[in-house]
């Protein structure tokens, strides 16, 4: 079956159900409904759901525990999405499918967060004296919902000093639980909830059984606290982690409010039903921005549910920021692909955690280290490098203490184990230090969040080759490690660069939508640390990942929402994307760390965010919920399936497909797919809306192309805006030359009026066969 399988058939005819064929043990399933099918005899949808479930045949399982009844509703969704989660057997699900109004049914599933700010505000150009910070009053009264692992409310980053009372429109609550009281919330953290029913069903026991979790909004894992502090943490003086990144810590929107929705429970993850319940509740609570550093799981059901949830949030005017995923640098590793969310990739800043390997022949090899000065190797020690692939990779059981004890061990980064695992192996064999040779052109594996058991430094593969050459030449090679600590403005690593781990395009589901949308700081980000558990007394910690880029964008979106409360999520997204920049602080194009080459829109999207420029974008590409009708039609959905997205609205897809194409969605970037070796011509339509201070404005177009294989033309080449013509359309035509051997190429268009430059990147790709226009948005494997 092709990947244009329609939404219903994908969800109801899914191989994942096969595991239930011989197992009538009830499990949690998520049921999406068409609201209009509710029979009039029921007063509420919940009554309809309950009566329908009770009419299903009882479970035949004799082993099922009576205290967890079958056909029981676990969650009801009625704000961003419509439906419920319930305990059902496979045969009950089969029966439910045949009933009218029950559009799709998917099994619950477990997922993980996208793991792996004293400086990022400065790096982003945020300033108390001018620009978006003072103009937005630092995002005051904008409510940012953080879907994550909870929050540590006692942290100084969540101090509410100087904040006015909680906005009257707020409908949320501070949910009490173990170690969490209603008084834990204040005027900064205005709400906190926990969602665990789905995960407890999967685990078969309470989430706090082993004592590592609190069955409450309290963050015992640290991820949610870090993300919340990054997005909207209050100003904290003298912040740092192990003396690293010392200075003033603050979030992107220091006067915004935080609502925490805990749906992730440490190493066991979180369930889809809980995530949907958290997102649906956030919509009911009337948040403004949702920060969601969540992995979409890479499976059909999870992406489908996430698409529905985020679409419903967008319909309510809620801006959604999501993480691009940490599966780079391979292509097509991007996560969170729906066009109604902003997908953030991760970039570096001009702050390094510097360290040098000093060889006894005088060579100084630069690298990075997660350690601080009083934990390093002192004096020169012999260097050890294994004689086979296992010992060279420092795999478990590969190092002998008789060979390694008292030495600095060189370990190749193989991808088979983590730096933490390698450090444990080195330590257990008696090694006193570790040098990790990265498999990228620049060091990316060790950050200050790496809690290694042995002092370590990472070097790039280029510098690693010099160390190995030195070892081969010397009878007794020795070295020492010199920790530099925090280095700002390093000329060794121009910035920003695209992080090696950041998820990459092309978009494997809808190649006509360019993803990621943008990049933002995501490497060595200092922010709030949970106070749960034993260990360091530091109140801050440094983390890396697209999870860290996501809350940067959430906080910046909150600033724009404060200035322009009438703007749609798409308008805010457009302002952030079309004002992004594409050169680093050395004046060269942004580089991709993974390849060492200039980055492309498949790695960086529209470029690196520039919040002060986004404050005054000039023009925006706006999109209303109804504008997605054509896009959903082109993705292969029929009227019944689209009704799930558009709340029972009837859409004539046959008529829509005659006059539009999937590339016509009014997106701020372009992605064009040609058939390899053939001449192709495509025309896309766009509409720009003038949001500048002057109602009368004239914009001219400039085309920038990096390839001779595609001819680009725009009509008209000039847009004249007036008070009566605030929105104007244009068409852009792409024509591929015959016989081209390229597989991808890039360019951009710019609309400029002498003050504003509105930039849209263009990505071209050539496939052996053209992608069907009716490709399903969310159904790809």
From TrEMBL:
SUPFAM superfamilies: Protease propeptides/inhibitors, Subtilisin-like
Gene Ontology molecular function, alphabetical: serine-type endopeptidase activity
Keywords, in A-Z order: Glycoprotein, Hydrolase, Protease, Secreted, Serine protease, Signal
Cleaved signal peptide residues: 1-18
Pfam families from the UniProt entry: fn3_6, Inhibitor_I9, PA, Peptidase_S8
All copies of domain Subtilisin-like protease fibronectin type-III, residue ranges: 664-763
Location of the Peptidase S8/S53 domain: 139-588
GO biological process terms held by the UniProt record: proteolysis
Domain PA: 390-465
InterPro entries, sorted: PA_domain, Peptidase_S8/S53_dom, Peptidase_S8/S53_dom_sf, Peptidase_S8_Asp-AS, Peptidase_S8_His-AS, Peptidase_S8_Ser-AS, Peptidase_S8_subtilisin-rel, Peptidases_S8_3
Domain of life from the UniProt record: Eukaryota
Gene Ontology CC, one term: extracellular region
Domain Inhibitor I9 positions: 30-113
Places the protein is found: Secreted
Primary residence: secreted
Active site positions: 148, 223, 547
Family membership: Belongs to the peptidase S8 family.
PANTHER family given in the database record: PROPROTEIN CONVERTASE SUBTILISIN/KEXIN (PTHR10795)
Name recorded for this polypeptide: Uncharacterized protein
Organism the protein comes from: Papaver atlanticum
């Amino acid at each position: 079956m092709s990947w244009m399988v329609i939404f219903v058939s994908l969800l109801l005819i899914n191989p994942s159900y096969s595991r239930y064929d011989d197992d009538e043990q009830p499990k949690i399933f998520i049921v999406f409904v068409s609201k209009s099918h509710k029979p009039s005899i029921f007063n509420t949808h919940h009554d309809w759901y309950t009566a329908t479930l009770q009419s299903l045949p009882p479970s035949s399982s004799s082993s099922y525990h009576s205290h967890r009844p079958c056909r029981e509703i676990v969650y009801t969704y009625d704000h961003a999405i419509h439906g419920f989660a319930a305990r059902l057997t496979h045969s009950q699900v089969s029966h439910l499918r045949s009933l009218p109004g029950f559009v799709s049914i998917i099994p619950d599933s477990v997922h993980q967060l996208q793991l792996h700010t004293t400086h990022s505000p400065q790096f982003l150009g945020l300033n108390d004296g001018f620009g978006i910070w003072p103009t937005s009053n630092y995002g005051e009264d904008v409510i940012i919902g953080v879907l994550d692992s909870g929050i540590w409310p006692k942290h100084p980053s969540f101090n509410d000093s100087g904040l006015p009372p909680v906005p009257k429109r707020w409908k949320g609550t501070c949910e009490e639980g173990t170690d969490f009281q209603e008084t834990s919330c204040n005027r900064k953290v205005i709400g906190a909830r926990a969602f665990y029913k789905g995960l407890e069903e999967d685990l078969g026991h309470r989430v706090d059984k082993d004592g590592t979790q609190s069955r409450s909004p309290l963050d015992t894992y640290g991820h949610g606290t870090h993300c919340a502090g990054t997005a909207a943490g209050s100003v904290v003086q003298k912040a740092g982690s192990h003396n690293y990144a010392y200075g003033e810590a603050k979030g992107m929107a220091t006067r915004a409010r935080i609502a925490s929705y805990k749906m992730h429970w440490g190493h066991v993850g979180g369930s889809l039903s809980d995530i949907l319940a958290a997102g649906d509740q956030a919509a009911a609570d009337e948040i403004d921005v949702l920060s969601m550093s969540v992995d979409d799981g890479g499976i059909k059901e999870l992406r489908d549910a996430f698409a529905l949830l985020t679409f419903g949030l967008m319909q309510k005017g809620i801006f959604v920021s999501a993480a691009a995923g940490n599966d780079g640098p391979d292509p097509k590793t991007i996560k969170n692909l729906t066009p109604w969310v902003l997908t953030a990739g991760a970039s570096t800043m001009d702050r390094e955690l510097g360290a040098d390997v000093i060889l006894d022949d005088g060579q100084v090899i630069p690298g990075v280290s997660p350690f601080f000065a009083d934990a390093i190797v002192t004096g020169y020690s012999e260097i050890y490098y294994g004689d086979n692939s296992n010992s060279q990779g420092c795999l478990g059981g590969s190092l002998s203490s008789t060979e390694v004890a008292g030495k600095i061990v060189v370990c190749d980064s193989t991808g088979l184990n983590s730096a933490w695992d390698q450090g444990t192996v080195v330590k257990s064999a008696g090694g006193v230090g570790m040098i990790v040779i990265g498999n990228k052109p620049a060091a990316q594996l060790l950050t200050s969040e790496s809690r290694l058991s042995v002092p370590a430094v990472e070097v790039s593969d280029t510098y690693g080759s010099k160390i190995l050459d030195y070892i081969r030449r010397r009878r007794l090679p020795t070295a020492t490690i010199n920790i530099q600590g925090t280095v700002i403005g390093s000329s060794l690593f121009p910035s920003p660069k695209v992080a090696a781990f950041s998820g990459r395009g092309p978009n494997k589901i809808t190649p006509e939508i360019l993803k990621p949308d943008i990049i933002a700081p995501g490497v060595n980000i200092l922010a709030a640390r949970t106070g749960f558990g034993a260990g360091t007394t530091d109140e801050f910690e440094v983390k890396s990942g697209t999870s860290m880029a996501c809350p940067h964008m959430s906080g910046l979106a909150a600033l724009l929402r404060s200035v322009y409360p009438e703007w749609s999520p798409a308008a805010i997204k457009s302002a952030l994307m079309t004002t992004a920049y594409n050169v680093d602080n050395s004046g060269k194009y942004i580089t991709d760390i993974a390849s060492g080459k200039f980055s492309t829109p498949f790695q960086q999207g529209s470029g690196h965010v520039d919040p002060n420029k986004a404050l005054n974008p000039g023009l925006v590409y706006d999109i209303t919920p109804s504008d997605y009708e054509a896009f959903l039609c082109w993705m292969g959905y029929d009227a019944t399936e689209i009704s799930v997205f558009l709340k029972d609205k009837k859409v004539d897809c046959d008529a829509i497909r005659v006059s539009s194409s999937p590339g016509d969605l009014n997106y701020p970037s372009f992605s064009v797919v040609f058939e390899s070796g053939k001449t192709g011509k495509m025309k896309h339509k766009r509409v720009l809306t003038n949001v500048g201070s002057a109602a009368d404005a004239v914009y001219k177009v400039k085309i920038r192309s990096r390839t001779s294989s595609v001819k680009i033309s725009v009509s008209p080449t000039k847009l004249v805006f007036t008070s009566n013509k605030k929105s104007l359309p244009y068409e852009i035509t792409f024509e591929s030359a015959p016989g081209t051997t390229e597989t991808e190429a890039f360019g951009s268009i710019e609309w400029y009026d002498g003050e504003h430059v509105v930039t849209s990147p263009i990505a071209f790709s050539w496939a052996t066969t053209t992608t069907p226009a009716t490709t399903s948005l969310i159904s790809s494997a």
